[in-house]
Design a protein that fits this description.
Blueprint lengths: L1 E3 L24 E3 L6 H4 L11 E5 L12 H5 L5 H25 L7 E2 L3 H5 L30 E5 L10 E11 L3 E11 L2 E2 L3 E8 L4 E8 L6 E10 L9 E10 L4
Parallel strand pairs: 1-2, 2-3, 3-5
Antiparallel strand pairs: 4-5, 6-10, 6-12, 7-8, 7-9, 7-11
């Protein structure tokens, strides 16, 4: 059984006979997309973990792309009817959009086991454990025989619009050069599965021999990394023309470590 943001009003905190629960099937997976409190936030979805595995994309409360202004949302790419409906219940309806995208992307929507969304964002729950990470949505049941504990909370990030899946990477850059400089460092990945856009790894004071690390959620599954593009820039014209390079760049994919 797959629960697509199961209802909160009149169901949260009720006995298991009344609401969806892991006892209802051999395998119950849940996608929480609108689990903020009903009052005052108008959250339509239940927040506690109630399945064998519970996915909380983007933290489970506020979905990217749902904060668009009403006009742009109502005259949506999908038409006025869908746009109007999305404006009223955008977060709630994201659950079925993620699910339908998951059918097309069997390797997408990896959920990372973690105690909280904040810990996931800071990289504490990266990479996937040895048994791997389950895929949110249609292929979640592939993980059925790997569950070791009572409730498994899983976190991930998604895009703002279709296509929704993102793939998480840890990128560490060790700089080389002679003097420190203020600016930013960007990195793009090129691989057998496609190329990413540039992602900012750090900004501020850039010191040679220092290592800077960032977690990125890329719009493609890069696959085998063939090339890394490194770009740095200082924020203003510097008459000394400082030079900065990358001594090493390490890329770790969350999926296969």
């Amino acid at each position: 059984l797959s629960g697509l943001d199961p209802a909160q009003p009149y169901f949260q905190g009720t006995p298991t006979e009344v609401r969806l629960d892991k006892s209802d099937a051999d395998f119950v997976d849940i996608i929480h997309t609108d689990s903020a409190p009903t009052i005052p936030n108008l959250g339509f979805g239940i927040s506690p973990a109630i399945g064998h595995i519970d996915f909380y994309p983007n933290g489970g409360k506020q979905m990217p792309g749902c904060g668009k202004n009403p006009v742009s949302q109502i005259v949506d790419l999908d038409g006025i009817w869908e746009g109007t409906r999305d404006f009223v219940a955008c977060n709630h309806l994201r659950s079925y959009k993620y699910y339908s995208d998951s059918i097309i992307y069997p390797d997408g929507f990896l959920g990372y086991p973690c105690a909280s969304y904040e810990l996931f964002q800071s990289g504490n729950c990266f990479p996937c454990p040895e048994e791997g990470c389950p895929n949110m949505g249609h292929y979640a049941d592939k993980f059925k025989d790997k569950i070791k504990r009572g409730f498994l909370k899983l976190y991930l990030n998604t895009g703002e619009a279709r296509d929704f899946p993102l793939w998480r990477y840890k990128i560490s850059v060790t700089l080389s050069g002679r003097s420190k400089v203020k600016g930013y460092v960007n990195v793009a990945l090129y691989g057998s599965g496609g190329n990413t856009k540039q992602y900012q790894i750090t900004k501020g004071t850039l010191k040679p021999d220092n290592t800077y690390t960032a977690y990125i959620d890329a719009e493609v599954n890069v696959g085998k990394v063939n090339k890394v593009k490194f770009l740095w820039n200082n924020n203003w014209i510097n008459p000394t023309f400082p030079k900065l390079g990358a001594a090493t760049i390490t890329v770790e994919a969350g999926q296969n470590r």
